[in-house]
TrEMBL record:
Location of the protein in the cell: Cytoplasm
Superkingdom of origin organism: Bacteria
Organism: Enterococcus ureilyticus
Identification of the protein by name: tRNA threonylcarbamoyladenosine biosynthesis protein TsaE
GO process terms (BP): tRNA threonylcarbamoyladenosine modification
Length: 157
């Protein structure tokens, strides 16, 4: 599924929907170039989970955990591991009761979880604010997650 996002507000809108239908143990692997909008999307997901705390990019800490929402949010950014995928011990988060959102998660390679929703944000070469976001479910839990996102989006149009 591909969706056009015309500005950051639209990205936040989709992200809120995603956060509002996330279930315990769901995982999102977020891909896209620097500045594509991965952290912006995570902020909207946090709002959808009912977290009102400020979301800070975990680039230097790898993981930040937020417990004030409907579900815990485990926000990770594995950019700093560069291309030497290492066992960072993230499985305890993937297997936890919260929603894991991993910026640059594809860099985990063999340490990727087995079931995840792949969300890729692509910039437009002409319009500074335009993005294409594509969703792909890997595994049955992610399929159910994507179905709930679909349904909620339909309810909103
Ligand atoms: N449609 C859009 N969706 C998300 N961010 C956008 C959009 N248009 C412009 N932006 C801007 O692009 C930047 C994205 O930054 P950020 O979310 O930190 O990216 P990343 O985490 O992918 O490096 C922000 O400054 C945001 O305001
Ligand atoms: Mg980021």
């Amino acid at each position: 599924m591909d969706i056009m996002l015309n500005n950051p507000k639209e990205t936040e809108g989709i992200a809120k929907i995603i956060g509002s239908v996330a279930a315990p143990g769901d995982t999102i692997i977020l891909s896209g170039d620097l500045g594509a909008g991965k952290t912006t999307m995570t902020k909207g997901i946090a709002v959808g989970l009912g977290i009102d705390q400020m979301i800070k990019s975990p680039t230097y800490t790898i993981i930040r955990e937020y417990q004030q929402g409907r579900l815990p949010l485990y926000h990770m950014d594995v950019y700093r591991i560069e291309h030497g995928a290492d066992d960072l011990g993230l499985d305890e988060y993937f297997e936890g009761d919260g929603l894991s959102v991993v910026e640059w998660g594809k860099l985990l390679g063999e340490f990727l979880p087995t079931d995840y929703l792949d969300i890729t944000i692509t910039k437009d070469s002409e319009d500074m604010e335009k993005r294409i976001v594509s969703f792909q479910a890997i595994g049955t839990q992610a399929e159910r997650f994507l179905e709930r996102i679909h349904k909620k989006m339909e309810d909103h149009v």
